[in-house]
């Protein structure tokens, strides 16, 4: 087996379990009279064959190893087959979330200077209309109707060589560029993360070992890029009928139905999706006995959401909330059993959110809080035991740089001999038992008088109130302001009473004593990828306008 190209694992699995279901996608308008969704299915053998045909077609059509190709392809067979075909042939896929907005999209595309563009017709119209990559894009491939922009159609290149010949796989070295994945950019312009084949390989092994995935499992990935690891793990993927860019708007029945239909064993979902499905499940007494493992990431999941979703699971099933980012994942692991039995009370009393212990192969350290670049690593950078500082990580799954963003790389990376440490931009500390606790983003800390306040630590003191959905701490002209989003669906909440209670709680706790002002907000702005990270920068601007 090729040591570093993870597509090798797909071809291995195709030999070991050729007829096992690899991926299933819902057909359009596919719910029958009994409420069962009809799916289009592809086996591991078929997936490997389609991948090999696509790889040969791409190379025959002028794409070549090392080409950077922007992918604007919705979740579906084409998304998976193209992704694997590019890895197989050494072509570098570039992924940018359309939700980042037209202005940011153009900046990111022009920055990465892609050689090619693969997308649906609508994406090509936008590319031409807005001048995306007009100085660099030379190779064009269209999924669906092709209009005036030229290039080839996907269906044409798929049929160029449909033979059953042995697949030739790009023999990747660990430092070879595998993909450019852009961050959400929830705090500014998205950054292109430089992913090597070594990073992907390490991630695959860490996911397998950390969560105990084994061939034959059935997964529901509600964020499609995460599903690209599944075929290499020998795990079947059932893609739900939902808009993956709007997990908070999911129809719970479109998640619960397939879980029961296929006997799904694992599910990945953002905290916003868990919140929506958990509320529905609790109200309707839904049970999902086949699920043995749920993984949630993108932001800290609320205790309330974990409790609600857990009502649908068997007592031995667990919701894992691993910690990580686009630049480095996974880093730590913790499960709902530990959260609900051991750490929940501490979280509600201002200790932060427990994110568990570091996973095997990843080194996590806490350094003193500083905003400037740190060129080289020194043990003197470390914070005192138990002190809140910035979380810094090192390991084979940790990316080394941003693509063509030197200033951002300097701020986020620390050279440590031949290795690089990544500064997460998050604050936290390690307790005496070796668990790490997340206290909030470094950029979200609020200074009030002589006291520095950390968002997540403070907010969870108030989030336990039954009438509170979530809170957000922001700073306005040196004053700490608490923004409150009330529980949805409860129209009988007495705002003045709630305000008095929460301000009384604030006054009683040393961490939140500076909070004297509370503002109710109808619905917090959140990131477009997971609909879970609160965009406190926008809230701060809103609060400032409200107060003036």
Task: Give a quick precis of the structure.
The chain contains 16 helices and 27 strands. It is α/β, with parallel strands linked by helices and about 550 residues long.
CATH class category label of the domain at 46-196: Alpha Beta
CATH fold call of the domain at 46-196: Rossmann fold
Mean pLDDT: 94
Biggest β-sheet strands, sense, barrel: 8 strands, antiparallel
Strand content: 25-35%
Q: Can you give the helix content as a percent range?
A: 25-40%
Which spans of ≥5 residues are poorly predicted at pLDDT below 50?
none
The name of the CATH architecture of the domain at 46-196 is 3-Layer(aba) Sandwich
Shape: globular
Can you offer a commentary on this structure?
By secondary structure, the chain is α/β, with parallel strands linked by helices. Among the domains are: 46-196, Rossmann fold; 447-547, 2-Layer Sandwich (GMP Synthetase, Chain A, domain 3), CATH 3.30.300.30. 31% of the residues lie in helices and 26% in strands. The protein contains 16 helices and 27 strands. Strands 15, 16, 17, 18, 19, 20, 21 and 22 form an 8-stranded antiparallel sheet that branches. Strands 2-1-11-10-12-13-14 form a 7-stranded mixed sheet. Strands 7-6-5-3-4-8-9 form a 7-stranded mixed sheet. Helix 15 links the parallel strand 26 and strand 27. Helix 1 (7-16) packs across helix 2, helix 2 (44-60) packs across helix 3 (77-89) and helix 10 packs across helix 11. The longest helix has 17 residues, at 44-60. The radius of gyration is 24 Å and the shape is globular. The model has no long low-confidence stretch (mean pLDDT 94).
């Amino acid at each position: 087996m090729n040591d570093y190209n993870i597509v090798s694992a797909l071809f291995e699995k195709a030999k070991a379990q050729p007829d096992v279901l690899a991926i299933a996608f819902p057909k359009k308008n596919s719910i029958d009279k009994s409420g069962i969704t009809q799916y289009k299915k592809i086996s591991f053998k078929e997936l490997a064959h389609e991948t090999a045909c696509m790889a040969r077609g791409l190379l025959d059509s002028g794409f070549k190893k090392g080409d950077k190709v922007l992918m604007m392809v919705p979740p579906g067979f084409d998304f998976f087959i193209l992704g694997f075909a590019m890895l197989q042939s050494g072509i570098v896929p570039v992924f940018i979330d359309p939700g980042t907005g037209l202005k940011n999209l153009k900046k990111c595309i022009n920055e990465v200077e892609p050689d090619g563009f693969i997308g649906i017709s609508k994406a090509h119209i936008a590319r031409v209309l807005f001048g995306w990559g007009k100085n660099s894009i030379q190779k064009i491939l269209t999924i669906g109707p092709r209009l005036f922009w030229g290039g080839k159609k996907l269906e044409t290149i798929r049929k160029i060589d449909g033979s059953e010949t042995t697949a030739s796989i790009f023999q990747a070295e660990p430092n070879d560029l595998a993909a450019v994945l852009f961050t959400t950019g929830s705090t500014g312009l998205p950054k292109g993360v430089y992913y090597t084949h070594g990073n992907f390989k390490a991630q695959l092994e860490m996911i397998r070992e950390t969560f105990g995935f084994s061939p034959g499992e059935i997964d529901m990935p509600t964020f499609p890029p995460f599903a690209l690891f599944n075929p290499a793990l020998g795990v079947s993927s059932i893609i739900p009928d939902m808009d993956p860019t709007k997990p908070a708007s999911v129809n719970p029945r479109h998640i619960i139905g397939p879980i029961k239909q296929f006997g799904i064993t694992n599910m990945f979902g953002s905290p916003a999706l868990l919140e929506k499905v958990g509320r529905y499940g609790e109200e309707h007494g839904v049970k999902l006995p086949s699920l043995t493992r749920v993984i949630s990431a993108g932001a800290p999941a609320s205790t309330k959401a974990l409790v609600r979703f857990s009502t649908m699971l068997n007592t031995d099933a667990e919701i894992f909330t691993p910690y990580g980012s686009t630049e480095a994942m996974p880093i730590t692991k913790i499960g709902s059993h530990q959260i609900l039995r051991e750490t929940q009370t501490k979280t509600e009393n201002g200790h932060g959110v427990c994110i568990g212990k570091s996973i095997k192969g990843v080194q996590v350290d806490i350094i003193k809080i500083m905003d400037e670049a740190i060129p080289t690593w020194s043990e003197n950078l470390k914070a005192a035991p138990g002190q809140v500082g910035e979380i810094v990580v090192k390991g084979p799954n940790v990316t080394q740089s941003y693509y063509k963003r030197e200033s951002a790389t300097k701020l986020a990376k620390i050279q440590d001999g031949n290795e690089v440490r990544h500064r997460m931009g998050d604050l936290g500390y390690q307790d005496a038992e070796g668990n790490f606790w997340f206290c909030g983003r470094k950029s979200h800390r609020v200074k009030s008088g002589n006291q520095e306040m950390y968002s997540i630590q403070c907010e969870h003191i108030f989030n336990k109130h039954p009438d509170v959905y979530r809170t957000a701490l922001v700073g306005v002209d040196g004053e700490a302001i608490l923004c409150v989003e009330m529980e949805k669906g409860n129209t009988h909440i007495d705002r003045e009473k709630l305000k008095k209670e929460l301000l009384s709680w604030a006054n009683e706790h040393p961490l939140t004593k500076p909070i004297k002002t509370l503002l109710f907000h109808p619905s917090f702005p959140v990131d477009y990828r997971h609909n879970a990270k609160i965009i406190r920068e926008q809230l701060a601007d809103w609060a400032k306008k409200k107060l003036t």
